[in-house]
Specification:
The complex is a heterodimer of chains A (183) and B (115). By secondary structure, chain A is an all-alpha fold. Chain A is built from 10 helices and no strands. Chain B has 3 helices and no strands. The relative contact order of chain B is 0.10. The chains are: A mainly alpha (183), B mainly alpha (115). At the A-B interface, helix 2, helix 3, helix 8 and helix 10 of A face helix 1 and helix 2 of B.
Chain lengths: 183, 115
Amino acid sequence: MEVSDETLVQQVVRLKDLQAFERLVQRHEKRILHLQRRFIRDHALAEDLCQETFLRAWDRLETFSGRGSFAAWLTKLAYNIFLQHRRKHAARTSRETPYEEEAEAGQTALEGPAPNADELPDLPRLLAILPEADRLVLLLSYGHGLSIAEIADVLETPDGTIKSQIHRAKDKIRRHFSIGAAA
Amino acid sequence: MSTTNPGNDPHKDPLDALLSEAFQQDIEQVGDADMAGRVMRTLKRRTRLRAAILGVSMAAGLSLATALALPGLTDLLRLLAEQAPVEPSSWGVLPIAALLAILTPWLFSLVDDRV
């Protein structure tokens, strides 16, 4: 049986177990790197911020209370590191979101023929019609598997706002691409 | 209010299933950046660097404290052995030396936080 994240965290905190920490990094590296690349176009910089996320996690692991999931705690750390970076380099990073690029590409694609009902649109096309904030909430929900409460905690936004953002975004996608609603 | 993740129940809504699959594929497409290797190498390097800084700063602090305290301690030993004369002025550095010895770990922690 696979050891849970929370058990590995305890091993790291109590024993400063580097191997346990390495397993945590291996489990979450793709997810965190994907998140940073979603925020920042420069891949090398995204990798640096991803590394910084894990180094800070090592330093602050004892502050993980265990109330939420470790994945959500790490996601919040990654998001805060991105925000700090953006504040420091505001002028440079303001136009660095790949979401915007994809949105523009998607928008061009949307100007073509309407999608066939049987043909499911790919992710950039789905996201292209949404504002940045809604895309991020969908990413955290469907890509990172965070609960509404966890997303609210990461983004420091009320639960109700997150819930209505998800509902609104899905509704918009459903209407635009003629995707069937829940049975 | 529900606090669950809609992505955890792909049978409920076809769009949920579509979004979950699309995002998972997108995450899987992230290339192998050997992040674990990079992080572990950095952590080990940082640990060695911290140990070196600790060693050097402790040695420097304690050496300085000893050098400052030595004349005073010598006088004290001579006094205890009743081999006067004693120069009380040399005792003045004793509290400074003691303070330095006490403060050395704190000075190290200041440096350590920046590593």
